[in-house]
Amino acid sequence: MAYEDIILRKEEGVATIIFNRPDSLNAIGGRMRENVLDAVQDVKTDKNIRVLVVTGAGKAFCAGGNLKEMERLSVEVGLVERREFVRNVAHKIVENIRGLEKPVIALVNGPAIGAGCNIALACDLRIASEKARFGEGFINMGLVSDYGGLYFLPRLVGPAKALELYFTGDVIDAKEAQRLGIVNKVAPHEEAERTTYELANRIAKKSPLALGMIKDILYKGLNMDMVTELDLEANANSICLKTEDHREGVRAFLEKREPVFKGS
Questions:
Q1: Using an 8 Å Cβ cutoff, are 12 and 204 in contact?
Q2: pLDDT, tens digit, for every residue of 43-67?
């Protein structure tokens, strides 16, 4: 499928969604939202893809919403219509990224601001170039967060720090984002892509069934009591014990070789 505002690339078990509006620092507009939804669905149904990387073309990851488009919509579109669009299109992006039973890595190659920051937060892991910047600048536009930022950020940095970042609209650099626990790793700009794909390819060699279950249970466990979460672990392990991937893992360990997981 051809996309207007993104690029979808697939190679050796790893798919990449590239926000492709570099002239506007990949600000969200045009058909980008719908394109991303379609691409995530493509990745979901492609059994050959085990890991998804999300990044931006050019100098930015994603600079957030397109301000000219936002200004026009504030005049032309009614409150209820806008709310339904956000619920059914915009917010489906982070729902589908988080719900994808495959690891998703954000390669943050430059500024990730507003909605762009929150899309990065929705990903499971974040590798940042030293040129990356993160900011929740909604307050500077008289707005409240969207794309799940008020859900994701306090779970990474705690409520007090999250509120500070939201109340001030401050932009932080990659090293500070790493110190706060937002970013898993910071790499020199010219090495960030290589670092990301080394990690993606390493994860892609693991059991896809187990990866999906780990992601699903970990996120569910954040919102449930320990006993309920332990029950999910017991059920998932019981399923995995019956898989060919588990048998392959045991054989590979005993034979002192790398396992070759098939997802069965």
A1: yes
A2: 999 999 999 999 999 999 999 987 7
Grade residue 12 by pLDDT with cuts at 50, 70 and 90.
Answer: very high
SS3 letters for 193-211? HHHHHHHHHHHHCCCHHHH
Report residue 117 as tokens: 């920051």
Distance between CA atoms of 14 and 2, rounded to whole angstroms? 19
Closest CA relative to residue 120, chosen from 132, 110, 137, 108: 108
Cβ of 120: how many Cβ atoms within 10 Å?
28
Mean pLDDT of the residues in the chain: 94
Copy the structure tokens of residue 197: 């794909």
How many CA atoms does the CB half-sphere of 123 hold within 13 Å?
27
| Structural domains for the chain | 6-204 (3.90.226.10), 208-254 (1.10.12.10)
End-to-end CA distance of the chain, in Å? 28
CA 139 from chain centre, in angstroms, equals 23
Q: In what order do the strands lie in the sheet with 14-19?
A: 6-11, 14-19, 51-56, 104-108, 125-129, 185-187
Which distant-in-sequence residues (6+ apart) come within 8 Å of 113 by Cβ?
62, 63, 64, 133, 134, 135, 137, 171
- Chain segment 151-200, per-residue pLDDT in tens: 999 999 999 999 999 999 999 999 999 999 999 999 999 999 999 999 99
180 CB-near residues (< 8 Å, 6+ apart): 156, 157, 161, 172
CA-wise closest residue to 132 among 220, 62, 197, 195: 62
